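Aim 2, interim progress. The first record below pairs a target sequence with its structure tokens.
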Amino acid sequence: MTRVVLILPTATYRAADFVAAAEQLGVEITVASEKKLPLSSAESLVIDCSSPEESARLIVAHADKHKIDAVVAADDQGVEIAALTSQELGLPHNEPFGVAATRNKVTLRRALARAEVPQPAFGVVNSPEEAAEAVSDLGAPAVLKPLGLSASQGVIRVDHPDDAPAAAERIRRILIAEGHSPGEPILVERFVPGVEVAVEGLLLEGKVQVLAVFDKPDPMEGPYFEETILVTPSRLHPEMLDEVIRVTQAATAALELSEGPIHAELRVDGARVMVLEVAARSIGGLCGRSLRFGLLGTSLEALILRRALAMPITGLQREGIASGAMMLPIPNSGTLRSVLGVDAALAVPGVVDLEMSIRSGEAVRALPEGNRYLGFLFAKGPTPADVERSLRAGHAELEFVID
């Protein structure tokens, strides 16, 4: 029987959706994670996601007992493991060095620079003093980023070189809290104005098959960069959409990515399109639930698994209506006590679902220290503007009681 190894870090939002997609396809599942997850009757394999080589070795050893047809990672933490394992087993895969580059912001920037892919001017610093010098050299405003964190954690805009040392020190504290070395370098980028979009795609033998382009209608100007609303289809002019897709293709080619899902973040400033991030996985959080494909409403996770398992894909065309998600922002740090207005939010026309990801009694941290969202609100409608209005109206009905 066909078997897929799903690499599902314990912190992932997406375990249930990937397992459900695999079970719907009728394939056997081995779940590789830091500990056994209570998902289903799926076989479990305990790995260390922070050690890609050792984790790949364990999965390859597992293949001696159970034939493995595909290895799929849900999140960033597993993509390098999936590439190394698939390479060893002779399965379709991305080059491990290219996947590793997507996990390190400096390596990514340097790879894109070699291929002359448009991106922000950048520098790498090792001290608060160097951060101030870099901002002075690049020009303010600038953005300071840790190399390996995600979900905008530790990303801070500064408007003057004098502000850079304090931002660098704050990033150091965040790194220490997350178990990273306090001596880890920091990336400094020139701030790029404009609107931000996200490209969701599936690589088919090196060619980006675009599944969706999301607009981010809320300004992403800092000082922190919390994502909120994502709406598709994009309202960009068709010529600008073509340029966004062209630049995305150039970025994946520069990284020698060739198979599986990709998620790219780009800025559009007038006629300029610049790459901010490229990931060798699909969209994060639960935002993938806003996407359905083909006449049967196939999920994003099912598409990814079908491609990995060389199963026929009946349709990559997104459903004909607009859709979107809102990642519910955390207004302040503390302890979540309750969420009010859920029924009223779900009653808003166009709103189709609400999924809380932090429960009452749990600690919450606002950006830039935090890396989670309170939950996800979903909407559908005739147009992107309708979806955006529904998401904003639904969010307005919610009240989060945080001590």
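The second target in this work package is listed in the same format:
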Amino acid sequence: QTDLIHIDEQEILGVNSREDLALAEKIIQTKLRHFFLNKGVTLIDPETNYFSYDTIIKKDVTIFPNVFISEGVKIDSGSSILSFCHLENCYIKKNVSIGPFARIRPGTILEDNSKIGNFVEIKKSKVGKSSKVNHLTYIGDANIGKNVNVGAGTITCNYDGKNKFKTTIQDSAFIGSNSSLVAPVRIGKKSLVGAGSVINKNVGDNQIAITRSEQKNLKRRVK
């Protein structure tokens, strides 16, 4: 007597070529999409979302089309990942909004109710509760407190060509647009950095820092 074992063809699929590998990837992605949908995650267009084997997503998270999630990502409930975002080795806490077109790199923690906007890159940094980094900004090796507003075009200059340094922005600070924060540097609580400033010295609590040169309006000569 011979005992027969019924096995799904997909379970014994061999991978002997790039084509086989692509097919295996398609199969596992389909399974992951069904898994998250059944766990209460909203996928607006599931076929365009990609996940890692170790992705953790809590219920009531919404993921928009064309989002890629790599290894080591955890997303807590109530958060939204908008289109064309790339996440890797990061922790997204509750009610966070990310994107569109944002890149969240390894070592990043986004605290509850924080907001990361379009064309923002964050690497090895912590963004505190209810803080906003909305537009065209690079945050690297930084610790951002609560209720901080980082203006459009702000850059943390964390690398001098040899070593990397840390930027600290404390609670309720306001960073004006197009500012460069040259690490190591500390921006104090409730302080304000004027738009277009290059900051390479610490700013104390409740201080205003500005490094603009004087504007001159010269009479135009017309031939």
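The two ends are 104 Å apart (CA to CA). This observation will shape the mutagenesis plan for the next reporting period.
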